[in-house]
Amino acid sequence: MASIENIVKDTGEIYSRLFDHRPVIQAEIKYFVREFETKRNDREEKSRPIKEVHNCILQTQACAEDIASAAVDIPSLTERIRLLAGECRHLGAQQYRVTPPEEQRQQQERRACEWRKFREDMEQWQTQLEQQSIEEEKKFRQYYADLEDKLKLGLYTPGTKQPFDG
What we know:
With 166 residues, the protein is mainly α. It has two domains: 1-97; 113-159. Helices cover 87% and strands 0% of the residues. It has three helices and no strands. The N and C termini lie far apart (118 Å).
């Protein structure tokens, strides 16, 4: 029996070597990928300095174009700056001009008059409010005094509507 098992085992090994090529193919694929990546890295490393030089040339050209356009724009910019500086000086002179003492005195008198009028208006408004609150207080005192009198006389029964009950 051992010989049949050995024959089956040997037959299986022979079969797998003849017809099962997966391990060999996988090893070949791994080898191919490894070789491809190393060659690609070598090519990239060789082409990297060329790309850097190309990028440097492009940046230099862009800088040259910027310098040329700036050289064209500089005269117009300086003229605009000169005009704006003149306008700023003009506005500053207007804003910080010194008012004459007579004009200052007139402005102070005008503001003092406005302040007096404001205070008088506020005092008048305050007295009107005080008078209104005093009148309302008198009405309520009278109402509650009448209510108390009615309770004493028995004319008022709680739960009936009165003029101030709402």
